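Q: Give me the 3D complex with adenosine-5'-triphosphate.
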Amino acid sequence: MFNLFLLQLLNGVQLGILLFLVAAGLTLIFGIMDFINIAHGVLYMVGAYLMATFAAATGNFWLGLLVAMPAVVVFGLALEVFLFRRLYDRSHLDQVLATFGLMLIVTEGVRMIWGSSPIFVPVPELLSGSIRLLGIINYPVYRLAIIAAGLAVAVGLYVMINHSRIGMLLRAGASNRPVVSALGVNITWLFAFVFAFGAMLAGFAGALVAPVLSVDPGMGGSVLILAFVVVVIGGIGSVKGAFVAALLVGVVDTLGRTFGPILLQMAMDPSAASQTGRTLAPMLIYILMALVLAIRPSGLFGRRAA
Amino acid sequence: MSDSPAPTTAPPASPAAPLRRPRLFSRGAAALAIFGLMALVPLVAHLSDDPFLTVAFTRILVFAIAALSLDLILGYGALVSFGHAAYVGFGAYAVAILSRHGITDIFVHLAAGIGVAVIFAVLTGAIALRTRGVYFIMITLAFGQMAYFFFTSLSAYGGDDGISLRGRSTVLGTDLLAHNSVLFYVTLGALVGLYLLAAAVVNSRFGRVLAGTREDALRMQAIGFRPFRYQLAAFVIAGAMASISGVLLANQAEFVSPAYMSWHRSGELIVMVILGGIGTLLGGVVGAVVVLLLEEWLSVFTTHWRMGLGLVLILVVLFSPKGIAGLFERLLGRGK
Amino acid sequence: MTARLEIRSLHKRFGALAVTDGISLDIAPGELHAIIGPNGAGKTTLVAQLSGQLAPDSGQVLYDGRDITHMDMAGRVHLGMARSFQITTILHGFTVLQNVALAVQARKGSSFRFFGRADAEPALNAAAIGYLRQVGLAERAGDVARNLSHGEHRQMEFAIALATAPRLLLLDEPFAGTGRQEAEQLLALMRQIKGKQTTLLVEHDMNAVFALADRISVLVYGRIIATGTPGEIRANAEVRAAYLGEEDAAC
Ligand SMILES: Nc1ncnc2c1ncn2[C@@H]1O[C@H](COP(=O)(O)OP(=O)(O)OP(=O)(O)O)[C@@H](O)[C@H]1O
Ligand SMILES: [Mg+2]
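A: Here is the predicted complex, encoded as structure tokens.
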């Protein structure tokens, strides 16, 4: 039982790390630009597809990653320059509509280019196989690598946000937009940077999961909504909040699905328990979100009243 | 000219006075024309020997109801709810689940669907309405998704794959709805009835408070209103109306699946309202017709029709902020 | 006799800035109490706390002897507190009549009525027209609010405040931005209600203040440095130094 717990805990952390990568950019974009981007999940998906393509083309995971990352950044920047930029001073409704439209276009585009069936990316040689942890469970090395990479990014982000000029601007901008313009910063440039950066993180997450999950056109949507939940729980504009909330959501979701039915068996007969558990488990994170909001309407680390 | 704005003492610097047309008349006439044309559909289907037409238009009417209900909160309350499809799903599943257990009467289905919708709207609305802006959008989206996952995991009722109905709902023990044209007219009747209801609500005391809150919540508080209550009530009414469309949708398709509740569906409902013209009630109806026909038409040419829809959306947002209605308004305005 | 409004050592900070720094003040029923002070003194912030828009950090607000410190804005309005805003806050897409009728609607009958045209309720409209007549805006009743001039917007604010049937008026610079004629009209109106209405008037227009006020408080950097009759305030050296001196020089 403990083995299973440990295994699922690690899976949960891994999911949380991926969510963090997607949500970090999203929360900054919400906070700094007050811009709602329904198409953010698309960047994650495009990251995965580019990874799949370039890894296959070069026959090498690392080369693929090396090419896919700049490609995602360019893609994100292009979106910013050609579309998002025109939407910053529009109503949230307009933003929802246009980015929803963009999401449809890109998702269909991906279907046209790569087809609807899932694509698989092999795990790189270097990170294949499993490793024995605490002498009790075998865990895939690649999944550990995802966790490590995500944590490294988190640390890098932390340093950047707290100890650099751009980080100071991001912090100031996320909590108080007019301050940034008052500082005489080139807002256009800052916004483009935030976008490209968010695109990179989301694309990186997509590239990382490519060997673990199947790459398919639906992958952007499901992760987007989880990322929304993360942003709401963590508090808009807070990268630290996104980190804590992402891990919370990842772990609660994963453990809930495994242990929900098991725990319920103590209270009811097994078949009813497994049915109820399977029904309730996917709702857990939303219930968690509702609870957090009921207590703190602006999220765990939200500074502003929502 | 009769519709030129009355002379005002406003300084010329202020934005031009909005055109004031004899709106009530033209809107009533437009509603009559649209619903009247709709009523002819089964006849056309009969004459052209194309029974599919009636079924297809029943579906359009169903979504018109859903879009109409969304416009009530989106247009008149400025509440960008991104989880509205969930309510359609509640109505649809009320039919599917109850029928499965031998309860086939449509009034029971309606009561159950509306009941669940009201409870869900009260609970999630109370949380979402404490927030604003992007929070509100994301939270309604998340709760919609929660409902979606709930039905996805209900394996007893088809889970992910959905569930086929053995037949349509019965009406007081008769299988009236089994006839496609009867279902069509029932749906049209529901649409007209709900449209009139919504029009009354919008112009009522309640509707005025709702619209006032949309314009300036601080002002409303300063004259003694608590916006939350009115917004929540509107949220619940809209949810209940949407669940009625769900009951009809299940009957039209004779099949129910979680896909009805996906966030893409919620997004499409928003699209319908915007394209048709937000805050006009009739706009939602027009939008549903336009989007679904566009879908139908585009899918003849390509399986990637969603790309076309996406493109239309972006173009409308960038170039015609008032939707298709705005487009017409501008064309007609110039024409005069 | 209990004061209509009693403010007890109210404190409010924005970050490091003490915007309301221990304000205590009584306003007697029927009194017209003016608050003057330089820009940024914290006058609007004080009004916001009195009306329930902002929560004070500490201190109390009593209305007819009842503690309302934690009551929300709508609750205070129902007790009879009305507020006009320094920055015009009206429903721009509504007609002038609808704006005022809504304020009447808020206190007459339930607004959870889903049928019947609100615009066609004679009781609401008649009352609203009455208030519009009082401020001299009756001819504009049918116009959409956004088409009115700035001065007319100020008059509208006033009519809306009156339409809540207040027992205490909190007016934040009602004269700001009005033309000469509108100002005179407002002044006449204020004279009319003076003595009948309890009023807290925040105002920069010294002519209006000295013509109207029973008592004046001078607010500087979040503190009240002097309270007294217009004559006393005029004679107060500290006030002259801190505030009026500049005004005199400017005039
Ligand atoms: N929400 C806020 N956050 C931070 N500071 C604020 C806020 N509101 C007001 N302030 C500051 O508090 C101080 C007092 O503002 P307030 O509007 O109360 O002044 P005022 O006396 O009404 O000025 P005026 O005569 O210009 O209307 C100002 O320095 C202002 O910048
Ligand atoms: Mg002020």
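A quick observation: The two ends of chain B are 10 Å apart (CA to CA).
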